[in-house]
Specification:
single chain, 251 residues, Zincin-like, globular
């Protein structure tokens, strides 16, 4: 009996399961990440518009065969969601990249040591980049991240001054699942991609995370404070829901 139970335990241990399932639909194959989570009560399937990751989340004790059946039955849904993911655009010379909501053309100026900058050219707004062609994408990304850090610092300082609680630190990262966060120690983290959105969106995210310095939750008090700091909260939230996913297509 003991050997049988041990054998059964090993068979259902998540570590012994595959990390991915393969779903086929109309000749296409999709890798689906398999995730067991304590506290989850039902199987869910999601496709990230930011990364293209397909993930199947299920309760700890759900049999693997049930997960396979669920994934296989949603092959058409997976294919449709993957088809809706925006085409990715690199920061290559000639590419059009939004900066504070305004389209800018990446212009490479080879043979110069020009610091990456935003400029107004006869053809319209541009991001000018010097140096070697291979370095252009990285320089554009670093420029955008630096611009995001500058704008966020200004906005955070304004809002922390209003509530009288300073932020311990401001971090700018390339987060995929959230636009901003506030730690229990007072560190505010933001996605650098916010610099590509209209300024009122970045401003709202700064107000949102600063409000968490006082209300580390999403209670009615938190939302009241956020809206008091940023009257455009609802407009910015609506913009992120409609267009936020598009910011992940760049770079």
């Amino acid at each position: 009996m003991a050997c049988t139970m041990l054998s059964l335990f090993r068979r259902i241990t998540p570590a012994d399961e595959p990390s991915h399932l393969v779903v086929e639909h109309e000749g296409r194959r999709f890798d689906v990440a398999l995730r067991r989570r304590p506290g989850v009560r039902r199987i869910t399937l999601r496709v990230s518009s930011a990364t293209g990751l397909i993930a199947l989340t299920l309760p700890v004790h759900t049999p693997l065969r049930a997960a396979r059946a669920f994934a296989d039955s949603h092959g058409g849904w997976i294919a449709a969601r993957v088809a809706r993911i925006p085409e990715r655009l690199g920061f290559e010379p000639g590419a059009t990249v939004p900066l504070r909501g305004v389209p800018h053309t990446v212009v490479h100026r080879p043979g110069t040591r020009l610091a990456t900058r935003a400029a107004h050219r006869p053809g319209g707004p541009a991001i000018e980049v010097g140096g070697e062609a291979a370095a252009v994408p990285g320089r554009v990304k670093r420029f955008l991240a630096a611009e995001a850090a500058r704008d966020l610092r200004v906005a955070v300082d304004r809002y922390t001054g209003t509530i009288g609680i300073p932020a311990r630190r401001i971090a700018v990262r390339d987060t995929k699942s959230r636009w901003g966060s506030c730690s229990s120690t007072g560190t505010l983290s933001f996605s650098w991609r916010l610099i590509m959105a209209p300024p009122f969106v970045l401003d709202y995210l700064a107000a949102h995370e600063v409000a968490h310095l006082k209300e580390l939750n999403h209670s009615a008090r938190f939302w009241a404070l956020t809206r008091a700091l940023c009257p455009g909260t609802d407009e910015a939230e609506a913009w992120l829901k409609r267009k936020g996913g598009e910011l992940h297509r760049y770079g």
